[in-house]
Amino acid sequence: MKREIPKELEAKLKKNMTRLVYVVIAIVLLISIDILLVAKLNVGPFLAIRTKVYKDGGTKEYYGLGYKVIKYHQTIGRRDTQIGFWNMSYSDKATEISMLDLALELRNYPTKNYKKFYNQFLQIEGTISKIDKKKKQITLHYSDDDGAYALNVVCTLVDEKLDMDDFQKDEYVTVVGTFKEFNNKEKTMKVGLSNSFVVEA
């Protein structure tokens, strides 16, 4: 004969299960907000524990419930933030791409490749077409013969000791920085690299 659970116990179990579900939903919501704040506003993380500080200028590593955050702050190099699973590893390697390849990928498949490159640490070589001393920006320009794949890469430099007078128009340089902006509404596409360094001139 099947034994019935007393109604009082059943009501208590239901009440406890409901509380547990609310707690789980609250935790998931808080973690999601924490990840969004880090990803979109570069604030936090608030719910992750800092486990390591690298001797590269101050890169910090954090572990949260199911996620990991690496806030890069290299002396010369990465200054971006990466979010992933616990198996995500520290990497100071920039993805090397030519101005031509970047122009081809962004012109032919803009949405797909914007998502691919967004927040990625890139290394690009090119010729300086414009220098903005006030904003500490240099613009690298590429264009094919008919201008179908024209591209400007605006690099916002962060080196505090940098003297903008050291750069000359038409100088060929190698820049590392984090891909943050893309505009393909004009004939000449525009990419914005933030936290950039000139690593070779």
**How many separate domains make up the residues?**
2
- Here the CATH topology of the largest domain equals OB fold (Dihydrolipoamide Acetyltransferase, E2P)
CATH class of the largest domain: Mainly Beta
Q: Terminal Cα separation, in Å? A: 86 Å
Task: Estimate the strand proportion.
Answer: 25-35%
| Main sheet characteristics | 5 strands, mixed, barrel
Low-confidence runs of at least 5 consecutive residues: none
Radius of gyration: 24 Å
Helix content: 25-40%
β-strand number: 10
How many helices does DSSP assign?
3
Lateral arrangement of strands in the main beta sheet:
6-7-8-10-9
State the CATH architecture of the largest domain: Beta Barrel
How would you explain this protein's 3D organization?
The protein is built from 3 helices and 10 strands. A 5-stranded mixed β-barrel has the order 6-7-8-10-9. A 4-stranded antiparallel beta sheet has the order 1-2-3-4, with helices on one face. 26% of the residues lie in helices and 34% in strands. The protein has 2 domains: 7-84, no CATH class; 95-200, OB fold (Dihydrolipoamide Acetyltransferase, E2P) (Beta Barrel). The protein is an alpha+beta fold. α2 (99-108) packs across α3. 24% of the residues are buried.
